[in-house]
Write a structure and sequence with these properties.
- The chain is mostly beta strands and about 290 residues long.
- The protein has a single domain, classed as Beta-galactosidase, Chain A, domain 5 (Distorted Sandwich).
- Helices cover about 0% and strands about 45% of the residues.
- It has no helices and 25 strands.
- A 9-stranded antiparallel sheet has the order 9-10-11-12-25-21-20-15-18, with no helix packed on it. Strands 14-23-22-19-16-17 form a 6-stranded antiparallel sheet, with no helix packed on it. The protein has a 4-stranded antiparallel sheet with strand order 1-2-3-4, with no helix packed on it.
- β2 and β3 form a beta hairpin.
- The radius of gyration is 18 Å and the shape is globular.
Length: about 290
């Protein structure tokens, strides 16, 4: 599987255009900023990061209603209770432009498809400098009528004993047994990261809303990582699997199952794009020290 490599200073980024435009590796010198990967990547699930397009996270039973029409999209092969993460991560992306420090990829769905019933064009832009990595995602509605749209990135960051995380958000979406939001709560206790907090061994798999786009990851040894997100990325997903040396910190444009409205009027759900309009978001990962 061919990868394209960007380098700048001590930073290296390996991208797999043919595997969903996913990131295979992101390192600073010998330190894996994103999680280390197996020698042979079997699927996009093995990757260090991948795009979430045309929606983020889960859709209950793969079903939703929009503009008076009911839709069914394929459910996850591992769990039929939801569709997950969008299909663009499984398909090849076109290389639009490439240089030693930047890469632009494009994915086009020209007509409605079983995986998503609305035509769209998506792009990812990777920009590397000696100080860090900027990821940009955008999606255009190519349908002849308004359509729901979502974008995001799913990076897995390295997790060591004593790794700390900090970020501030207005709300946490409390979930049910399928990890799909059912109500809005105020972050508290083990789910509140307004001050730097060591990541526990216990599982966290929650969406946060009203994120200000700022976060910081610190390791007991290794670099300090500053995150700054903008544009549509005012939500995030935090996933800390038990017993793993990585965690997911995912900037996204909406909560899981955002295409299905909740009674809470503060829930904006997914963005509804007019024909020809773009939804855009960016994530800057700055490496500081050690």
């Amino acid at each position: 599987m061919e990868s394209l490599t960007l380098t700048a200073g001590s930073l290296r980024l390996d991208v797999l255009p043919s595997l969903g435009g996913a990131v295979a590796r992101f390192t600073a010198s010998d330190f894996p900023i994103f999680r280390e990967q197996p020698a042979a990547i079997a699927s996009v699930s093995d990757c260090a990061s991948f795009p979430l397009i045309p929606f983020s996270n889960r859709i209950r039973n793969g079903r939703f209603s929009f503009d008076g029409t009911q839709y069914q999209i394929p459910v996850d092969k591992r769990d039929a209770r939801f569709a997950n993460h969008g299909h663009a991560r499984h398909l090849p992306w076109e290389v639009v432009a490439a240089s030693p420090e930047a890469l632009t990829l494009r994915f086009r769905q020209l007509a409605p498809a079983p995986s998503w019933p609305f035509a769209f064009t998506a792009e990812q832009v990777f920009s590397l400098t000696p100080d860090g990595l900027t990821l940009r995602a955008r999606l255009r509605n190519d349908a002849a009528r308004p359509a729901p749209a979502g974008i995001g990135f799913h990076p897995y960051f390295t997790r060591l004993a004593g790794t700390k995380l900090s970020f501030a958000a207005d709300c946490l979406w409390e979930t049910d047994a399928v990890d799909i939001p059912v109500r809005r709560e105020t972050p508290a206790g083990r789910f509140d990261f307004a001050r730097p907090k060591a990541l526990e061994a216990k599982l966290i798999n929650h969406a946060y809303g009203g994120w200000n786009g700022l976060a910081e990851i610190t390791h007991p040894s290794g670099p300090r990582i500053a995150i700054r997100a903008g544009g549509a990325f005012d939500h995030l997903i935090l996933f800390t699997p038990e017993g793993k040396d990585f965690f997911g910190f995912e900037p996204v444009s909406h909560r899981p199952d955002g295409v299905n409205p909740l009674p809470d009027l503060r829930d904006a759900g997914m963005t509804i794009l007019p024909p020809g309009a773009w939804l855009e978001g960016s994530m800057m990962v700055t490496i500081k020290g050690p």
